[in-house]
Design a protein that fits this description.
By secondary structure, the protein is mainly α. It has one domain. Helix content is 76%, strand content 0%.
Length: 261
């Protein structure tokens, strides 16, 4: 591996992890069409670490407020932070259940590029329909958090965007756009963190071994920077009501993939 390859992979990981274009769908389709040989699991772990740190850093003030709401009763936002934390707990449950009991089923989906292309079209359609969401004035309650969590669990399928499905689900539930986006990113922390820890435990012996460690660190750093940029850019588009732009891309990409597969 070269530093150029590590940088390119870091950029791809950082951007697609948070933008609503389904990184897993692009991966499955690209492997099939381009006959790509993907990098080893050690690099993947480091790249995921970079994006995990990105979301932690970007939302650190909010995460700090969540913990303060739990341990500081005098905090003016204590009640709101406790409700948000409860919604995050409920929203995480579906992904945990799917990961524990349906792992084999979902892994088989990664062997079918046609399925991934079809799901990419589904993601594009869902994003385009976000323009129809109305009455966007609510906060994320426990019930709404759980429903958004169901959308995140389905996003394990290749072609279904995690950020796209969770944010749009929040919009259709009447959640304020900025609140829906914030909840989506906060909900990503246990999802990305859990996957990272499982991979770390399974590959701890090789993670720091070999001659490519410096390349892995470069890739992680680049994925962190690209992740910060993609989060900031996506939040700006959501505030301007332009999330549906990604719907055009996903739909065209899905149709094109079906034509060439």
């Amino acid at each position: 591996m070269t530093y150029a390859e590590a940088i390119i992979l870091g950029i791809i990981q950082g951007l697609t992890e948070f933008l609503p274009v389904s990184s897993s769908g692009h991966l499955v389709i690209s492997e099939h069409l381009l006959k790509l040989s993907m990098p080893g699991v050690s690099l993947e772990i480091w790249l995921h670490f970079g994006t995990l740190v990105a979301v932690l850093v970007y939302f650190f003030p909010r995460i700090k407020a969540l913990f303060r709401g739990v341990f500081d009763p005098s905090f003016s936002e204590a009640g709101a932070m406790r409700r948000l934390l409860w919604a995050l707990v409920l929203g995480t449950i579906p992904a945990v259940v799917v990961g524990l009991f349906f792992k084999d089923f979902f892994e088989k989906a990664f062997e079918a590029p046609t399925f991934a292309a079809g799901m990419l079209i589904v993601t594009g359609t869902f994003l385009l329909l976000s323009k129809l969401a109305r009455n966007l004035s609510r906060d994320v309650s426990g019930k709404r958090g759980f429903i958004i969590g169901l959308a995140q669990a389905l996003a394990i399928l290749p072609g279904i965007s995690r950020s796209g499905s969770t944010i749009v689900t929040g919009l259709f539930l009447g959640v304020k756009p900025d609140k829906a986006a914030e909840f989506s990113f906060l909900l990503a922390i246990p999802a990305i963190g859990g996957a990272f820890l499982l991979d770390l435990l399974d590959n701890s012996e090789t993670l720091f071994a070999g001659n490519d460690l410096s390349h892995y660190l470069v890739g992680a750093g680049i994925s962190f920077l690209a992740g910060i940029v993609s989060i900031h850019y996506l939040l700006r588009l959501i505030r301007r009501g332009k999330l549906f732009y990604f719907g055009y891309y996903c739909t065209v990409a899905g149709v094109a993939a079906l034509v060439f597969i």
